[in-house]
Structures are given as C-alpha cells and as structure tokens.
Amino acid sequence: MRRLALLLAVLASGVLAGCARPAAPRAASAHWEAPASTAPGTSPGSATPGAGAPSSAPAPSATRAKPGAKPTTPPPAPTTAAGRTGGRPALTDPGPAGSVRGTGSDGVALTFDDGPDPKNTMDLLDLLKEQGVKATFCVVGFRARDHPEVIRRIVAEGHTICNHSWQHLEHLSERDDGYLSWDLQSTNDAIHAAAPGAKIEYFRAPYGNFTPRLIQFAGRLNLKPIFWDVDDECYTTAKYGVGPAMTNHMTSIVQRDTRPGSIILSHENLKPHTVSTYRTLLPWLKAHFRLIVMPTSP
Prior knowledge:
Distance between the termini: 120 Å
Helix content: 25-40%
Strand content: 5-15%
Radius of gyration: 34 Å
Order of helices and strands: HEEEHEHHEHEHEEHHEHE
Mean pLDDT: 79
Number of strands: 10
Shape: globular
Low-confidence stretches: 4-87
C-alpha cells in the first residue's frame, strides 16, 4: 500500500507540472493603437523597428488613433544651398492684397526706399558700382522732382526705378480716385522729367499698405505691386541708434532671413547707417546668393 501511494503521488506531480506551462501568446488586437513615437506620414502597420511597434508584430487589419492625438507634421528639410535659409519654406505666398513678395527665381533683390537722398543715395550708388551689384530704388515723387541728377544716375547705371508714391502717405489707399490717379501719375512724370527713357514697371505702397483698390490704380499705369520678404529694420534708430548696434542688428536680420528668391527691404533716405551696413553686408550677400535687379521689359 505504501508503494502504491508513493506511485500515485509521483504521477500527480507530473500532471500539475504540465498544467503550469506558459500559455501561447495572444494574437494582436484588430484595434491596435498607434504608439506616440510612430513617424509622421507612416501608418502604424508599416512602422519600422524602433519607430513604435515591434518588428515582429503582425500588421493590424484596422487602425484607430489614440483619443485626442494630434497629427504631427515633419519639420521642413534643411536647405543645403548657400542661402542658409534655416529651414524656412519656399517663397510661394504673396504679399498683402496679392502683391509680389519674391523675385520668382533663386535670385535675391535689394530694394531701397524713400529716396532719392542727394548724399546717401549717391554714396550707395558708389558702393553698388564698386561691388558690381544692381538694385531697385523705390523713389518718392517730390524727391525725384527735387533731385533729378540722382534719378538720372540710378537709371544710367542700370538700376531699376520703382514708383513709391508722391509723398509717402501712410493711408494712401483711403484717398479718393482723383488723388490716387494724380499721385501715381505725378511720381512717374517726375521720374521721366529727370530720365525720359526710364522704365517704371513697379509700385510699392508706402509702408507696404497695399489694398486691392490701390493695386488696381497702379495697374492702370502698368505698375506691378512689389512687397518684400526680408525687412532689415534700418528705421529702428530709436532703439539701436545709428552706430555699430544698428549695423549689427541689420546684418543679423538679413543673414538670418534671406533665402533664394527674397526681396530685401531697406531705406537710404536720411539713413547713412544703411550705407555703412551694406559696406560689409554686400560681400556676404554676394558670397551666399545671386543678387539680381528686379527685371524690366526689354
């Protein structure tokens, strides 16, 4: 009897050991939730090892995003061109009221507003000639009338002339039809009085305050509305003065923000610090970009 009891105990322990074996792994749920680390643009079923789902997991038959999860967008690819765009997107969006914001090519255009200034514009023209660079000058009508010799030089040296209104009124678009027609036409007339052969194909609203109505009036004179992509803030003299602090400020903005296709806004009227800044900034721009003048028709 003792031997029989011992034999029965041994058999019972074997049965219990067999019941203790691990269960087979469960199949993946049909409602598998995407892990937070899944790469943007990759469906959970195609996740690669280390991207959220283990590589051995079977592809789910259906997926469902986590409640409240927000779609992620991959950062823009860094630009490898010399322009140092810092990941900024391409120039595709227009300026206010549909004005032109970029050059339409990889070229970068320098534009100088509010002149002509009999001293600073002349100094800037000297610098541009020395560096072999052409620019676009957005001139104010009454100043063109008062300094025709500067207008003549701008045109003679191959720069582009842009109509910047007669007296730079901030709310020009709010004036009546008669005034708008007179303002833009008088500015063109003052430019042509100084340089009869000048091609005037662009218009820049004072302060960039374009409206559809203002663009319509410019269109009557076949003037294209140009805005800008980079503003060097040369007018912030109350904060930076006119010395090295301002030069450093302007330079840092232009170097940070300029990309292929940019139109750079600056001002030379009553701003000698603009000329001093571009003495060092122009060589940098030439080394990193193709500088162009805003084109005119043949």
